[in-house]
Every structure is written in C-alpha cells, then in structure tokens.
From TrEMBL, chain A:
The keyword Disulfide bond does not apply. PROSITE patterns: ALDEHYDE_DEHYDR_CYS. Residues 32-478 form the Aldehyde dehydrogenase domain. The keyword Oxidoreductase applies. Keywords: Oxidoreductase. The lineage of its organism: Bacteria, Bacillati, Actinomycetota, Actinomycetes, Kitasatosporales. It holds the Pfam family Aldedh. This is Aldehyde dehydrogenase family protein.
Length: 479, 302
C-alpha cells in the first residue's frame, strides 16, 4: 500500500511463544502414533508457504483403531459422575486460557488468519466454550431432555480449516460434557492446533481414548463418518460433503448434525447508522478473509442510500491493512490454501465475466503465500454466480432493494439459510424482517458475534442441528 | 332394519382445501379386515404429490405467520368437529383395523384427545424450547423455534387414525404445512379426516391428504426440492433408507421410523404420552442478536 496516514510500523507478535515439533503422530488412545501405512503430509504456513511440520496422515485402518479406543473409553467415561467429567472440562478450559497466546500464534501460523483475530476472537471463544459446557456435565437432568439423558456413544467429528481450534471446541466440549467419547478429524491444511489440544488433554489428565485426533484428508473423514461403530456424526464444512454424509448415514441409527455453507444477506435500510453499518459490513465479509460460513457475503442496500453507503464502504476498505498475519495491526491475513485461493479467484473471475463490476482498494499483495485483496462487486443481480454460490473469501456482492418485502425476498432467495444481518434504527422493522428471514442466526445492528450460550446453525441447505447453548446438548444425547 | 339402499360415499383426496380425485383418474379397492369391499380410494400419482406440495407451500406463509393462539384455537376446533362425528370414525376405524366397536371407540377418543393435547402446545413450545441466552457481551440474544416449512408425512400403516393424528397434529401445531400419505391399506379414516379439517377453519393447503401406494407417492416427495422435511413413520426399513437418501439432495430434515415398543405392540404404542419429540423434529431455531448499549456502565447504582 502506498504511504498513507494509516501506515504503521511493523508490530509482529513473537513466534517464540510456540514450539512446533518437526513431526506429529496421530493421537489415539492417549498416545501419539504413526499412521498404520506410515503416510505423512506437510502442513504449511499460508502466509509464507513455509513448511511448519510433517504430520501423520490417518487412513481407514487408523480410523478403526481410534474408534475402538473411543468405544473402550466410553464405558468408563459415560459412567463417571457428571461432576467429575465437568472438572476435566474445567481443567481443559483453564489450560487453554493459560496457553492461549501460544495457541493463538500457532493458529495464525497454520491458518493464516490475523493474530488480532486468533488472540481476541478464536481463543477466548474456545476457552469459553469448554467452560460453558463443563458446567452442563452435572446438570443434564435439568436441561429439559428428561431425567438421566443418555449419551450416544462414540462421536465421529470432522471439522474445517477456517476456525480450527474453535470448531474443535464446538464439537468436543458438548460431546464430552454429555458423556460421549470422540474421534475428531481436523482439516488437512490446519492440523496443528488439534494436535496441541491432544497435549492439553494429556496435561488435564483426561483418560486415554476419550479424545482421539486423526489428522488426514477427506478419505479419513469419510471412513470415520461411515464407521459402523460410530453413533454420532458431527460435521462442519461444505454443503456438498454434508449431503454425501446425509446419504451415507441413511438407514442407520446414527444421529447427525451438519453445519454447512451459507450466503448470508446483510440488509442495510435507509435509516441505518451508516458508519456502524459500514463497520458491520466489513466485519461481515472480511473477518477471517471471508472464510466464514456465516459471512455476510451479499450486501442488500436500500436504493436511496446505495451511493452514499458504497462511498463510505470503499473509503473504509482502503484503510484495511493486508499482510503478515502475525502483525498485530493486520486486518486481512492470508487465504488458507492454494486450492482455496484458486476457488476464490475463479469465482471472482466468473463475477466479472458475467458482467458484475469489480472493485478492490489499491493493495499490494505479498510475493509469497496465498493472498486475495478485499473485493467488492456492484451491478450484481440475483442470477449472478457470485450472488448464489458461496465464495468463502473476501468478496462482497452488492445488490439493492426498494422495499422491506423486496429485501426479505432477495435475502431468502438462496439454497442456504445460515445467517443474515439487518441494519436499521427502527425496532419494529428489525423484528418484522428478522421474523421473515429464513436463517438460523440474525444479527441486527451487529454482525459475526458468537457466544457459547447462543445456538448456532442453519435452515435449509445450511445444515441441521444447533451448536452452542442448551440446544447444543441435544445433538449428543439420546433424546 | 329397513331395506333402504344406503348412499355410499365417494372418497376423495384433500388438497389445497378442495376434494379432488386423483389427476390420474385411478382408484384402488379398499377392503375391511376381513376382505369385504368398503370403498374405492384414489390411487394418487406423482403429479398429485407435486400438486399437494404446491398447495402446502402456498399455505405456509399464512399458517406459520398466524399467532400461536390462533393455531391452538383451530386445532381445538378440529377436536370439536371430530367429537360430533365420533360415531362415523368409530365405524370407519373398526372396519379399517378390524377392531371391536368398543376398541375402535377408545382409539377415536384417544385421537380426539390428542388434538386437544396439541392444541394446547401451540403457544407453549416456544417458551419451552426457546428463550434468552446470557451472552458475554452487551447484546440482547433470543432463540425462538420456527416451523421448518413443508413436511411430507408418511402416516403409520397400522394405526390408520390415532397414528395418523399423532404424526400430523404436531407438524401443523408448530406452524408447518403437511402433505400426508395415508395408510396404504386403511386410507378411509384419513380421507374422512380431510372433511373434518375442511370444516374446522384449517386454511386450505395446511393439510393435504393423499392415498395410494406409499412408496409411489413418497418417492417424489422425498426428492422434491420444495419439501423441507419428511417423517418416515409409515415406511418399512428399505423404503425409509431409500427415501432418506433422496431427502439428502436438499438436506430435508428426516424423522426416521421410531422403534415400536415390542411389548406393548404397535397399536398400543400410539396411546403413550407423545412427549415433545414430534414437535421439535420439525422446528428450526432462530437466534437474533441486538446490541443493548451499556447504560449505567459508569457505576450508577440503579
């Protein structure tokens, strides 16, 4: 970026707080072990393409071994008094708090997201999630699912790369609190924080086999969700894989929760506080480089304020700092992988080819690593690919509307139904519009807020089941 | 007994508040438990199924947007109307299921009472499964249940009336609209229920009742992109698996066939306390956030 009043001196967070080993095994039955077939894969830092570590790659045989370990551990773990399970989870929450800077740096290195986010969003939420569900473990009788709600057994969990440790927390905390045991597969591009979590389990003294971590690719995930001795499948990721899982479990007794894609509409009415709305739009689509299933990737702006809003938005985008994710002043980090960058690039190119107008602030991209400038498309119609497909990147499609009814119709005109935003000073309009939106999370005059007590999950093809809050317990109980 | 010739009823489908025949023009013979002819019932086609979905979708906005109190009143009205036609349903259920008159009467009474049970649930389920969430920040945060949308319901094959009511009532109590496939071999009580619904202030399209071959009608419903959920109660294991696979195409919410209490027997199972499970199966949870600001943050004591 050229010299601006916003140019800051470098302020990198120290890497020395984290010690990444040159290689890691699979975490099965309380021990780090090699993959049965000896396969390994490299995990790289997306901002530098530096190899961070070499990680054992789980295959079907390892999945079987891990499920057996989890099954064996289930008997004792589920029979523990809830108060004892709770104390393990409280321990884990506390150790995460103690090690949060280390984990934040690690996550930033492996994922590419800014340290500002891992430090201030991911890690506090991870600890809070364990703390929250710890408290449920001995109160399940009072959760509204009848007396003595029983756990399901072994949970097979597959998580994405966009919030690696937070998605782990969303999966593991409620599973353990309710007395299930876990086999979790982190994404192939971000295995490290899950492996550090295995070490936290060791420090917390968690019994062997209660948590098993299997780094690997989609084949390992498919083997896990298909395993006949898995009682519960929890998946966060793409809608295509979610549908494959839904087909795979058909006719079984497996309980399933799916948290999938989205194409969230962020609706700005003419009476909205413009500056706050602009901040909310930026948070909505540029938080975590837009690699967020609940991103506000469609901006629906009332026609009468479109020009004013876009001017403010462009001005604001020009001040975003893109670069070293470890720099404390960085707003936009790296895209998680070369594959994801290629996908974003292709979809943005399609947007241009289909006739939408593309704009980015002048923005110098680092020469190594995977980067994509914040991008805004105007002249977008509902038929455009970029208004329909989830891009999962820092790309905002702008559409306009005239009436609240039109805004709702456009917002709901999608296969997805995960999130939406409403910006207006009029309370009754917020409630009326929120009521009509077919989305699981609606942020009014705010966006991308998360909390362990707040249920999260989608309508329609954004999946089913809820994570978080009392609702999140149901997914792991035989009710 | 006079030797007057009785007037037979032409049993027709119930779709969009009207009573059409199957567009295919097909019917099939319905007999009582002993094989005696009772009536010809419409043999619904795939087109009938699609028409029913269109009607159910059209009705969804109004029904889901009605107040819970209003929905409760209407469900209670169904019980009132059924009570008045109790004798007719006792006869139909006795014929359909081969029950004695007293046993059939008990089944019909239980079905009427089930409508009353669910009528009372409409304005309570939201408080039981929703509520405010104490988030760690200056935000108002509220979770509320909302209906999933259009639900395809495969009514139980054995319990032609109590079972049917037990799977249908929770679907519409929560504001969904329904396309119901009646018991294949005992469809008449379901078709007569359509006549009750039509006179109970239930808006047209909220409940649509089809008869015919369950597998033939269910396949297009399970694959339909404008159906949001499917209740597989009336499917056997093989059909249930196939339909669940088809339902994955647009990620329908699927309620699998529930294991039947073997000791109590399949008929007795429907008399048990239904709990809230069938209500929550077709509810989404919507969570709305709004900033609260922070009055008094500077230490005021109010």
């Amino acid at each position: 970026m050229t010299s601006t009043p916003f140019e800051y001196a470098p302020a990198p967070e120290s890497r020395s707080v984290v010690d990444i080993a040159p290689s890691y095994g699979l975490f099965i039955d309380g021990e780090f072990v090699d993959a049965a077939d000896g396969k390994v894969f490299k995990t790289v830092s997306p901002s530098t393409e530096e190899v961070l570590s070499e990680v054992a790659q789980a295959g079907a045989e390892d999945v079987d071994r891990a499920v057996k370990a989890a099954r064996k551990a289930f008997e004792k773990w589920s029979a523990l008094p809830g108060a004892e399970r709770a104390k393990y989870l409280f321990r884990i929450a506390r150790i995460i708090q103690e090690r949060s800077r280390e984990l934040a740096v690690l996550e930033t290195l492996d994922n590419g997201k800014p340290i500002k986010e891992t430090r201030d969003a991911d890690l506090p939420l991870v600890a809070a999630h364990f703390f929250y569900y710890a408290g449920w473990a001995d109160k399940l009788d009072h959760a509204g699912y009848g007396p003595n709600p029983a756990p399901l057994g072994v949970a097979g969990q597959v998580i994405p790369w966009n919030f690696p440790l937070l998605m782990l927390a969303w999966k593991i905390a409620p599973a353990l609190a309710t007395g299930n045991t876990v086999v979790l597969k982190p994404a192939e591009t971000t295995p490290l924080s899950a492996l550090f979590f295995a070490d936290i389990c060791r420090q917390a003294g968690l019994p062997r086999g209660v948590v098993n971590i299997l780094p690997g690719y989609g084949d390992a995930g498919a083997a896990l969700t298909a395993h006949p001795d898995v009682n519960k499948v929890a998946f966060t990721g793409s809608t295509a894989v979610g549908k494959a899982i839904a087909r795979q479990v058909a006719g079984t007794d497996k309980k399933v929760t799916l948290e999938l894609g989205g194409k969230g509409a962020n609706i700005v009415f003419d009476d909205a506080p413009i500056d706050q709305a602009v901040e909310g739009i930026v948070t909505g689509i540029f938080f975590n480089q837009g690699q967020v299933c609940c991103a506000g990737s469609r901006l629906l702006v009332q026609e009468s304020i479109q020009e004013e809003l876009l001017d403010s938005l462009k001005r604001r985008l020009s001040t975003l700092r893109l670069g070293d994710p470890l720099d404390k002043n960085t707003d936009i980090g790296a895209i998680n992988s070369a594959e994801q960058l290629a996908r974003i690039t292709a979809l943005a190119d399609t947007g241009e080819a289909e006739g939408a107008e593309r704009w980015s602030p002048s923005c110098e991209l680092p020469s190594t690593g995977y980067w994509f400038a914040p991008t805004l498309f105007t002249n977008v119609t509902q038929a455009h690919t970029i208004a329909r497909d989830e891009i999962f990147g820092p790309v905002l499609s702008v559409l306009s509307f005239r009436t609240p009814d039109e805004a709702v119709a456009k917002a709901n005109n999608t296969q997805y139904g995960l999130s939406a935003g409403i910006w207006t000073e009029k309370g009754s309009r917020i409630l009326a519009v929120a009521n009509k939106l077919r989305a699981g999370v609606v942020w009014a005059n705010t966006f991308n807020k998360f909390d362990p007590t707040s249920p999260f999950g989608g309508y329609k093809e954004s999946g089913y089941g809820r994570e978080g809050g009392r609702h999140g317990l149901e997914a792991y109980l035989d009710v | 007994m006079s030797d007057r010739l009785t007037v037979l009823k032409t049993y027709k489908l119930y779709v969009g508040g009207k009573f059409p025949r199957s567009e295919s023009g097909r019917v099939y013979e319905v007999t009582d438990a002993k094989g005696k002819w009772l009536a010809n019932a419409p043999l619904s086609s795939r087109k009938d199924a699609r028409d029913a979905v269109v009607a159910a979708r059209k009705a969804f906005g109004g029904w889901s947007g009605a107040t819970a109190y209003n929905r409760g009143q209407i469900l209670y009205r169904i019980a009132e109307m059924l009570e008045g036609r109790r004798d007719q349903f006792v006869r139909e259920v006795a014929d359909a299921e081969g029950l004695s008159k007293s046993k059939a009467a008990a089944v019909v009474d239980a079905a009427i009472d089930r409508w009353v049970w669910y009528a009372g649930w409409t304005d309570k389920i939201g408080q039981v499964v929703g509520g405010a969430n104490p988030v760690a920040g200056p935000y108002f945060n509220l979770s509320s249940p909302e209906p999933t949308g259009v639900v395809a319901v495969l009514a139980p094959q054995e319990s032609s009336f109590l079972g049917l009511v037990s799977v249908l009532a929770p679907v519409i109590a929560t504001g969904n609209t329904a396309v119901v496939i009646a018991s294949e071999k005992a469809p008449l009580p379901a078709l007569s229920l359509g006549e009750v619904l039509a006179t109970s202030d239930v808006p047209g399209g909220v409940v649509n009742i089809l008869t015919g071959k369950t597998a033939e009608i269910a396949a297009p419903l399970a694959a339909h992109q404008d159906v949001n959920a499917i209740d597989l109660t009336g499917a056997d294991a093989d059909l249930a698996r196939d339909l669940e696979i088809a339902a994955a195409d647009n990620l329908k919410r699927v309620l699998r066939p529930q294991p039947v209490d073997a000791e109590a027997g399949p008929a007795a199972d429907w008399t048990a306390d239904p709990g809230t499970r069938r209500l929550t199966a077709f509810l989404e949870t919507k969570t709305v956030w709004h900033p609260t600001g922070s009055l008094g943050a500077s230490g005021s004591a109010y």
